[in-house]
């Protein structure tokens, strides 16, 4: 054998050995990683005191009860389990891991009141971070970072006697008592302060573009995914002398409208996603499209989603990675543009101020109280420990954009659904709205401040919003993990799986807890036998006390003898407790409530919403609860309602 040939053979053998070795090494590493993760899980499970609690049978070795849980909104699951096992029990998660489920108000107050001892589990943070374009925003950070961010954002916004979300926008403020003190919006930009939804306003003001008007009314795309296609035809016209009924999928329109509102009110930015969509195919606003991608991405329960939670390496192989990445890049790009634009404005303002004032810190110049000003003030703070990094600022922007619009659009969608299913409530609400001190709502002119006051303070509008938020909480449940061993107090003893009475829930570090926000809102023990009914009258004659809790709600077993827990109105919809004392709860709740009231006032006054009684609408959970028509699963999220203008 010649020596070059020998060398060639040796080189080949070496190459094969190297490739083979690498393959074996990688395989061994993967097997070790998977086995050790499984083992850790099994050991943790075997040591968790939760294994002694009562609870439903696991349905599958790998997935436990997770499939049932995913569909919990449609099968009254938690109430059934509660009836069977009491208000404190366990269900099974991945490979049979016990997860605590409790509706005990004292236990909930204990857990949710200790934000840093009970952080969000990593897999929840991972799932939330997709909508916040990263995990450095308020919704996903933990510990000291959360404390610092909350201090910067919440305290800054709430330190003003009349804090509001935009320095130059008088529409939405935190203080319900005097929401209009301060500046009026400058309308010279050509943007109107009216938030009348343009597609709906068409019915009210007949200002429908001629090209889109038909004898059946205004034709609108049915679903966000249909936007590239010609709009669907309206299904029917009942009779020539009654106003046309038009079928509209209200979900994407409300999503666009609420995106426009948070953009303008929170960041002084005009997404104009409603007018863009009105122009038809191909004109959808890119950010609205990006949010559509993110919130539609996990519609179905998939085993891979659960596996990804435990084996994050699998996230790299997501099928929709490229689309999600594109959506997140869009958020990031728009966020950066917002920051740059506002920073430039502040630099110019500072230069002007420098002429007048000699020694002044940068951050003092940024005087606006809108969210963006608050974020940028923190970003340029001269005290490093208080500074928000650029990445944090960006994540904060997408957090507020998504937390601030998807939740409200879900809430409004379900409110219209509830009103469509309860015409007597809708009629009563309309009567109240028509009695308000105004002659017309009109898309082109701002609502006058006295009308805002009247809307915010109207008891029936308030009752409708409370009842809709109680019965249709956009966030069904949240989760926490015990960061250390603990014994959680309960309001009354419960039985474990051996029938022994327990007066506390023992937790071991790493145990996972589900807080069933929606199930608590529907507890018959607190709300009575008609808890599942949409009945705004239950709120009549009761209002908020100074802490936002509702006096007059049936006394539950809440903390220290108060009513049931909840940040607002004794419902769990916005989480529990007060962010000021270290709880994690919604910091946009006032904004959301006020926004809902105005939308409802504008929409319901002159439009009637009804629903085809033959369709069954189901709830699908994808961070927020979105509707699907049971018989049309392939249509994805939708809420088809009939709309008809009501003559004055
Ligand atoms: C009906 C509308 C809304 C609902 C039902 C809602 C619900 C919630 C819930 C349940 C949480 C707590 C999640 C947890 O701790 O696990 C939360 C947190 C949060 N919400 Fe809302 N929200 C709404 C509107 C808004 C709005 C309009 C904004 C902003 C303008 C907002 C901003 C936030 C932020 C930043 C957090 C994270 C707070 C923290 O962890 O410290 N939300 N929301």
From TrEMBL:
Keywords carried by this UniProt record = Heme, Iron, Membrane, Metal-binding, Monooxygenase, Oxidoreductase, Transmembrane, Transmembrane helix
Q: Where is the composition biased (Basic and acidic residues)?
A: 213-226
Can you say what this protein is called? Cytochrome P450
Question: Which species is listed as the source?
Answer: Wolfiporia cocos (strain MD-104) (Brown rot fungus)
Work out whether the entry's keyword set contains Cell wall biogenesis/degradation: no
Q: Give yes or no: UniProt keyword Oxidoreductase.
A: yes
According to UniProt, this protein's pathway is:
Secondary metabolite biosynthesis
Q: Which GO terms describe its molecular function?
A: heme binding; iron ion binding; monooxygenase activity; oxidoreductase activity, acting on paired donors, with incorporation or reduction of molecular oxygen
Listed transmembrane segments? 20-43
Amino acids binding heme: 586
Give the organism's phylogenetic lineage.
Answer: Eukaryota, Fungi, Dikarya, Basidiomycota, Agaricomycotina
Q: Which InterPro entries match?
A: Cyt_P450 (IPR001128), Cyt_P450_E_grp-IV (IPR002403), Cyt_P450_sf (IPR036396), Cytochrome_P450_monoxygenase (IPR050121)
The prosthetic group or cofactor this protein requires is: heme
Family classification: Belongs to the cytochrome P450 family.
Gene3D superfamilies to which the protein is assigned, alphabetical: Cytochrome P450
User: Where is the stretch described as Disordered?
Assistant: 162-191, 211-244, 537-566
